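Why show two proteins at once? Because comparison is the fastest way to build intuition. When a single record is shown, students tend to memorize it. When two are placed side by side, the eye starts asking what differs. So, the first record is below.
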Amino acid sequence: MIANAEALLKPLTIKGLTIRNRVMSTSHAPSYGKDGKPQQRYQLYHEEKAKGGIGLTMFGGSSSVSIDSPAAPWNQISVADDSVVPFFREFSERIHRHGAKLMIQLTHMGRRTKWDTEHWLPVKSASVTREPASRAISKALEQEEIDRIVADFAAAARRCREGGLDGCEISAAHGHLVDQFWSPNSNHRTDKYGGSLENRMRFGIEVLSAMREAVGDDYVIGMRMSGDEMLKGGLSHEDCVTIAAEYASRGLVDFLNIIGGQARDHIAHAVSLPNMSFPVAPFLPLPSAIKREVDVPIFHAQRVTDLATGARAVAEGHVDMIAMTRAHIADPHLVRKLTEGRADDIRQCVGAGYCIDRIYVGGDALCIQNAATGREATMPHVIEKAERQKTAVVVGGGVGGLEAARVLAERGHAVTLFEKSDRLGGQVNVASKATWREALSGIPRWLVAQVTKLGVDIRLGTEAGEAEIAALAPDIVIVATGGLPQRGEAKGFEHAVTTWDVLEGRSQPSGTVLLYDEIGGHNAASTAEVLAKMGCLVELVTHDRMIGEEIGPTNQPVHLRELYKLGVLMTPNSELIEIYPEGNRLIAAIRNTMTDAEEERVVDSVVVDYGTLPVDGLHFALKDRAKNRGLTDDHAIVAGAPQPCEINGAAAEPGYTLYRIGDAVAGRNIHAAIYDALRLCKDL
């Protein structure tokens, strides 16, 4: 048991509502809504946390109370009419049967949304302003509209109570309408809602007063707010303490959910959703300071990645509830594992930000390392035992191979894992060498601990060939040999080195370096930071419209911030076409992809990132002798069903079935390799 676990596992009672422990998941937007409702996928995702022992799970981050606050972006929840109530009832019953509590976050987005979605209504705010993140220019709300939105909040709260939810909170954080009224950065009004902080608090007071009247004094209502906007011309820490104290003293809120920062632009967004470049719990002093000034429970979330940190925050009195939202995306069973004395089995969040980054580019929230999260209808968090034990061989000890070995061993099979190097982890070992990306190493670290505990026969320093595999007489062979970097097709590519060469220390450039990025991911941006810190003068060139075009909004701004600090020259819209030596230096020729204009750079080194090519020789050597000829049935994979050859009797015949996963198929990413392994091996 971790230190201070008793503080974390102690129940908390708010207004007659008893939450079984102090661990929660905050409202967030996984983009699982359907038709504005929390339907099966959304419910199963939260039910897994309830099964896993969580005290309180909150859903529907930014659930809309009005039609002029569209729910369509990010597939969110609309609480603007009564049609949502039956879904709330179904959802509540699903969560309550596992002993957890369920709440929702209500909001009006104000200017923090788009006008050209759903109903095509103008965005509205306290004043006519433009938010850099949404790029929308707001209409200043008139009194009649304010009154209507206040009534909308009240009606939405009534729907929450009628739907059996245990409570609700309003969002007055991340630049939503309530805090748009609070903040002098967005409120330039001269009427009773503007000017002094007292006036700027008025709208939020009206909202919460109307909600209380609609649901009664015995229903739990809270508020999420910032403890410091960290914005010049915004709300100071002192302002936020004043607001919190005023709202609490008036009895308007039963709890306060405190964060740090705001989200008006790209870097602010990245700061308010801190990734692995930040320390653990970086903004804990903010809720701690507010807790000293109010007499309602304080919740807090922001990069609390482990139970030990959460337990300390509660035990030392900084907060009453600790939110581990992304930690539950990584492992929804973390509380249960703690109470069962299996804390070592918790798959800890590494702060990659993959879950959030996907949402803001139009995808759904997925965990970089847990492929079952968000796919509970088809993917298991707990692996079932197979009907009979088989002998399995996994070739390749990257994260795909490790996940395959883990799942097969959980199934009860006898598993041998071959890795030709002296270390497990594959490409993640390379990526984690890049400055603030080191926390990625936690992904293979957990997998290695699990396969070791499960008794997998791990053979390091052994390159598996046909003979080594045949000697084990396997029923199943998984080829997870990954990929190796390619140097592209530019003329003279042999004069370049790869980002892998730099990160693994095989090449140590000095002087001026041209780094060419054809992929747009973390690799080149991270390597540019490494080179600049080595003292190189770096120009980062990319074919794309911007540096790190494939990197999401919790990570790309951090990369850009560091690149600017380090003096890296960034050149988009350019293609590397030739490299040739001249004296003891290199000439790199680049072409502007928009104008076709060509330029040359005189440099000391050229570093490239063109992604990887699959290491697939073993697969093709084994293919002809495999019962399934090495083919994976895509229809079965997509349906989450067993492979046909595993269910039609062929599996009992002599010989083996052969499957290929991860970058050994095609260069993709960590999540793809792990998902390949889980959805295949869960049925083998």
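Second record. Ask yourself what differs from the first in the token line.
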Amino acid sequence: MGAAEKTHTRRRAIPWLLLALWIGVLAVVSPFASKLADVQHDRITDYLPASADSTQVARIQDQLPGGRTTELVLVYHRDGGLTAADRQTAARQVAAVAGRHELTAAPRAVPSRDGTTVMYPVASNEPGTDEKKRDALVDDVRSVAHDQGGLTVQVGGPAALSTDAADVYQSLGGPLLYTTVAVVAVLLVLIYRSPLLWLVPLVAVGTADYLSTGVAYGLHQAFGTQVSGQSTGIMTVLVFGAGTDYALLIVSRYREELRRHERPYDAMRAALRGCGPAVLASSGTVAAGLLCLLAADLNSSRGMGPLGTVGVLCALVAMLTLLPALLVLLGRRVFWPLVPAYGSAPRTGRSLFAAMGDSAGRRPLTVLASGAALLGVLALGVLNLPGTVKQQDSFVDKPGSVAALETLAKAYPERSAQPIDVITPAGRTDATLAAVRGTHGVASARADRTGGGWTEISVIASDPPQSAGETATIEQLRHELAGSYVGGPSAQQIDLKDTNSRDRLVVIPIVLVSVLLILIALLRSLVAPLLLMAAVVAVWGAALGIGGLVFGPLFGFAGTDPGLGLLSFVFLVALGVDYGIFLMHRMREESLNGAEPAAAALSALRTTGGVIASAGLVLAATFAVLTNMGLVQLVELGFVIAVGVLLDTFLVRTYLVTSASVALGRRVWWPGRLSRRSDPVRPERLPEPV
């Protein structure tokens, strides 16, 4: 056997070795991948920083006698007024609940003034800190307390709200994954127009998703990384969105190289040499942007950074190893019926992006001004964004706990049905009680458990939960009760909003600086990175503005999630810059080969436009899957990111960045050498996007 044949035989073995390696990796990861759901926590106090008042309250409550208290409210209502039989039914059901569970105190009936409603506050320490036991208790209470003979029975309270939220998060895993897979599969079939080719990237990205769950669990075990339903859902979307984008770039370049190389292995080697660095650069930018979330004070945001980075890096590794191995093993026939034959010429014709580039090139300043004005007008919609969403309004479909809150708000307008928890040093209980009762907006207050040097005081406000009046009462209590902590569901929402406001001020500048420095290093220019950063920030503002125009009037949302601004910014900047890298790298390569600035910009758009458009559609579609989930915060985040990606793909990259590059000419590469030279220079080793 000759040396060439031996080399070819060794190369043919490489894809099989990679495939075997992946099988081994999955076998090792498999025991851990299934455990990720077990370490997922979605209590609001798990999201909040340890320094928050409401987090301190929850921590101390867990240490009081009996541990964490599970608080429920059983609500019995009849529109025409409760009958004697209704009251007997209510008393019988409440007694049954007390007989099945150990309660902290005997439930006491609290009738409404209008006679339509009676509520029974119920509390138990049985579940402790075990969220599964809490959910089981809530479900059991609901099985006992049920409608009867026209009497409406609802189970509400903080524990019921938490259980309903947990049910939504737990349901995300299956539906989110299956819907994402279906959307990506349909788009790949339409893009590739092949009965087999679409399946290869899907298998690779599905494998990357499975790997990411195992790695995420290891990250939690090793570093205590916060794992929430939101972060795991976003990780899945990122794996499928970013992974499919990378696959589109690699497959597109591989198809080109198959026309130049007889053997698939050689074609793939050339394809990875050409587009691999661009994929590495883009994934590195996304990872850097996501890791900036480590500067966030909110646990959920800080945990999302590493988990999102794990997703992107797992997608990158799979697309650079598993995908090429599968494609090489399947050979040219995987492209059937549009098989790229060796030595054949690609189909030629005037593309849509060539026409769009020409229109941007003829009047660059007009196109740039018009596009910027459009984005500015859309950004004005931010002024129409509804206020912060209340906890009871955070569900797309109203669960029983929210229905109970609404019934209580109507039947008991003179008081809140949701307690405010105050934790005070045990030696100051009487003084704190007196101060609490003397605070404006407090309807009643009583001391509950004592232990470990602390006393728990339950406070009932005279205003509805999360109203402006109750918020003022909580803030006044925090101001007056030095040395004490004020928590509870409404206080948690206040801390959530305040922490998100702090995180925006800290994280957004870090993201801007980090991504800008990476772009400067990649493009060896200052103007081009600033142009790309201005573009993605404009896209973010316009996408949020469109959200403001539809969230309330069209979707009927009563508020926006406090974290929407920060998370949408991080994702749109990190992911949007990806496409800018692909476009500007190709433009720089054309310039290095001697093309004039305008010709380089239009050529880059013509050669990368189709792939970028396909990648943008896939990425937008994967994030749009979140709009089908049951929580307002996920719907809003998915909508804003999907709209932003589409704006970035079809308006900003196509028209604005291209027209700005044409208008600036060589100045777009200032202060690099391309800005000073008009003669061709020796080409550098630069990554090719397609």
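One difference worth noting in the second protein: The chain has 20 helices and eight strands.
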